[in-house]
Design goal:
The chain is of the alpha+beta class. The chain is built from eleven helices and ten strands. α7 runs antiparallel to α8, α7 runs parallel beside α9 and α9 runs antiparallel to α11. The chain is globular, with a radius of gyration of 22 Å. The chain binds flavin-adenine dinucleotide. The site of flavin-adenine dinucleotide has 18 residues, from β1 and α11. Flavin-adenine dinucleotide binds next to β1 and α11.
Length: about 400
């Protein structure tokens, strides 16, 4: 693979770079730290985060940058793997706003419907997703069915032209802000494992839905328990066939695990860590004088380069074969664990001062690294835990037998 941009790729890079420069909301576009609620900082509440994300998504849509890899006929840009990677790089380097609050719709539901949806479903749902008008959540995990998703028990009783849903989902991110949910239910009560499941689109305003937010150790209530008590879903909201929902789930999970440019955000974070080491007092000097800290920072810079190269390898394979390989799992393990190491080191640099936010409004990064450290713990759990990814690498990359 030639690692240099072709002239066409270079033009594409320039185009996204200059569009971002001209269009990023106030305060964004610089790696400098911005506090919550400040221009360029994360919005303070979940509602504000969703409202901000929707407005920015709309701006991306109007600029022709929403649904980058979606086919043009569905409102996307029809970009290939390499262009998508270039976009991810430039977006992270410009420190564009994190759009995770909309990502179930844009990154999972859209591609899943494009692949498996009916014409009516595509016409109804794709455009509002791209414009940021409708927010989606993902109702897959249940108590007792996370890594082992096929163990799920939420029932969907087919009654005429409706499916009546009863059961519980858990860890449903942003359910409290969502208009729609992708839900996987067991429509054949006698079925086992991957058989007899059905993938449905549920209007979150339907009677019988109770949402109970769960507070994480960061103090935020990002995800939820969602209870379904006789919720009626029209059969036209089934994606794929009744009883064949697992095929659709696999499409959604493959898209979720295939990201090739997550490491670019980490490169920005490492840059901030280096700055932190340069200015945090230690003895007569600063933390960056400490050989142990210097070794760690250099190690992370080398690991980021390895990550970038593995990302290129993944992208190259996708471009050639149209299928992600086990590199996707290798990337997920490597970036999520490196993410945690970077944040552990930030707290090591801060020392005792990092144990609690100082409460001093003049301290620019007050609470930032503590929050990031706590949040980084989630990365080795969502989108497939590290243990599950290692099982995949063992079987698919190393050819070892199933455990
Ligand atoms: C921030 C965040 C957001 C999330 N958002 C959503 C969402 O929007 N929608 C949704 O449906 N889910 C969501 N999840 C849930 C996530 O998909 C599950 O947490 C994940 O699949 C793990 O399942 P579990 O929590 O039930 O743990 P379990 O599957 O019970 O695993 C417990 C431990 O056992 C290990 N383990 C399990 N099976 C094996 C095995 N076969 N071999 C080796 N080790 C194993 C796991 O690695 C883990 O360490 C989210 C999770 C997080 C952290």
């Amino acid at each position: 693979m030639d690692l240099h941009d072709s002239p066409e790729e270079g033009r594409f890079r320039d185009e996204i770079r200059s569009w971002l420069r001209e269009n990023l909301p106030e305060g964004w576009g610089t790696p400098a730290y911005r506090g919550p609620g400040e221009p360029g900082g994360e919005p303070e509440t979940g509602e504000e985060r969703v409202a901000f994300g929707r407005a920015w998504q709309r701006r991306l849509y109007d600029g022709g940058w929403a649904g980058l890899s979606w086919p043009r006929e569905f409102g996307g840009r029809g970009a290939g793997v390499i262009e998508s990677m270039i976009y991810g790089q430039e977006y992270a380097r410009a420190r564009g706003p994190n759009l995770i609050q909309l990502s179930v719709g844009t990154a999972l539901v859209g591609p899943t419907l494009i692949h498996h949806g009916t014409d009516a479903q595509k016409a109804r749902f794709l455009e509002p997703i791209l414009k940021g008008d409708e927010v989606w959540c993902q109702g897959f995990s249940e108590p007792g069915a996370g890594s082992d998703l096929a163990n799920l028990r939420t029932r969907g009783d087919v009654e005429g032209d409706e499916i009546v849903v009863t059961g519980q989902k858990i860890w449903t991110s942003f359910a409290q802000h969502s208009q729609w949910c992708i839900l996987i239910v067991r429509t054949d009560p006698d079925s086992q494992r991957h058989k007899g499941l059905t993938f449905v689109l549920v209007d979150m305003k339907s009677p019988g839905i109770t949402i109970r937010p769960l507070v994480e150790m960061t103090g935020e209530a990002w995800f939820n328990e969602v209870f379904f008590d006789g919720v009626r879903v029209p059969v036209e909201n089934v994606v794929g066939e009744i009883g064949r929902g697992w095929d659709v789930v696999m499409t959604t999970l493959n898209v979720e695990r295939g990201s090739a440019s997550a490491h670019e955000g980490l490169a920005v974070q490492l840059g901030r860590l280096v700055e932190l080491a340069r200015r945090t007092p230690r003895g007569d000097g600063v933390a960056a004088d400490d050989p142990v800290i210097r070794q760690k920072l250099a190690q992370y810079a080398s690991e980021l380069m390895i990550l970038r190269m593995t990302g290129y390898r993944n992208a190259s394979r996708l471009a050639r074969h149209g299928q992600p390989g086990p590199e996707g799992s290798i990337l997920k393990i490597f970036w999520s664990e490196l993410d945690q190491r970077i944040h552990d080191t930030a707290l090591e640099i801060l020392g005792a001062a990092g144990l609690v936010p100082s409460g001093d409004p003049a301290a620019v990064e007050d609470g930032f690294w503590q929050h990031e450290l706590l949040w980084s713990r989630a990365a080795t759990i969502y989108a497939g835990t590290s243990e599950i990814q290692r099982n995949i690498v063992a079987q698919r990359a190393l050819g070892m037998p199933r455990g």
